Amino acid sequence: MDTVSYSDDQIIKLCNESTTREKGFRLLMTKYQERLYWHIRRMVKTHEDTDDVLQNTFVKVYRNIAKYRSEAKLYTWLYKIATNESLNHFRKIERNKAISIDDEKSKIYDLKSDVYFDGNVAQVKLASAIDTLPEKQKIVFNLRYYDEMPYKDMSEVLSTSVGALKASYHLAVKKIENIISNES
Amino acid sequence: MNPREEIKDIAPKLSLWKYGEGYKIPDGYFEGLSDRICERVEEDEKLDKYFSALPDEVMQKIKQEQKGKVMSIRPFLKYAVAAAFFMIMGTLVWNNVDSEFASDQTVSLEDSEELNYIIEAISLEDIFDTEFIDDETFEEILVNEDDEFIFNNSTEELLYEVDDELLEEFL
User: Fold this and answer.
1) B28 touching chain A per CB within 8 A
2) pLDDT tens-digit profile of B44-86?
3) What superfamily in CATH does domain A101-184 come from?
4) pLDDT tens, A41-64?
């Protein structure tokens, strides 16, 4: 299935017709699955959790595709759903277990024990520095640093003004640089 | 501004770090992903259909159970109705017999074949001996010695002065 030849508009049109819904949905998934996977993976860390959140994200997309309005870009709408699903995942975890004092250490431990992580020392350091950021700042940093998303699109995903996002990213980058500089 | 340029501007040290995260994915993960999600969507749709039909099914079951309860008391109801029917019929028949008997008594008193027989059976001496006829009446009887007095008068005329209870006692 050549997804590249299908525009977002065409995919949405296929999704909104009952006879072509599955075809359209498969095209949508194939086109965006990798981008969404990495966006979620940076937030939830483990592959298993990422797989779970990604599936929930696509199920939600399937159910709500009729509500999508073309004023927003399709990929920002998808990112928004993926971000919300990731945050819901965190909330679920937080409800299930009390946060311990050595939470930061346990997060790094989880990362190292993940069979699908083979990062070097620098990558573990960067990951642990990003983990110290507040939730929303972390998302802003990931979207800008790794996804290289324009501020305007980030504004659609996070429903925040471009100016606030720029300030948030600036602060996040400075914090991370300080952590890395102090450790090395 | 380009994000790479931007990071150099904000945090020169961080910009020297290699991009890359060290995360891996299982081989062939993305190849089967859309199939797995479509299967899940299908399962979810089945569940949705199940849940949307559930309230109707539950209500139907409740109604069936209620119907069952009504059915279960029906055999008893049948006997109860039968018993009530017989009781009512019995009461009606009894009342009817009773009233027939009462009316028969009235009729027989009026038509008085039986009464004639009874009266014939009672001798004047018996009457004389009894206390249920007062002295005046007795004198009348004596005045009208012929039997016509008694037998030509109506029964009611004959008995209007006779106490019912005493008559019953006598009979």
Assistant:
1) no
2) 888 888 888 888 888 888 888 888 776 666 666 667 777 887 7
3) PhyR, sigma-like (SL) domain (1.20.140.160)
4) 999 888 999 999 999 999 999 999
In the DSSP assignment, the letter for residue A67 is: G
Measured between CA atoms, the residue of chain B closest to residue A56 is B37
End-to-end CA distance of chain B: 135
Nearest to A59 among B7, B29, B40 (CB): B40
The yes-or-no answer to whether A1-97 and A101-184 have a common fold is no
Q: Is B22 close to A33, i.e. CB distance below 8 A?
A: no
Number of Cβ within a 10 Å radius of residue A169: 22
What ipTM, to 2 d.p.? 0.73
- Answer whether residue A91 shows pLDDT above 60: yes
Pick from A80, A83, A93, A173: which is nearest to A130 by CA?
A173
Nearest to A177 by CA among B23, B22, B9: B9
Round to whole Å and give the CA distance between B169 and A27: 114
Which residue ranges make up each domain of chain A?
Answer: 1-97, 101-184
pLDDT of residue A95: 81
- What's A98's DSSP letter? P
In CATH, what class is A1-97? Answer: mainly alpha
Instruction: Name, of A28-37, B46-55, B103-112, the range with top average pLDDT.
Output: A28-37
Pairwise CB contact (< 8 Å): A119 & B7:
no
Contact present, A81 and A59 (Cβ < 8 Å): no
* Domain residue spans of chain B: 112-170
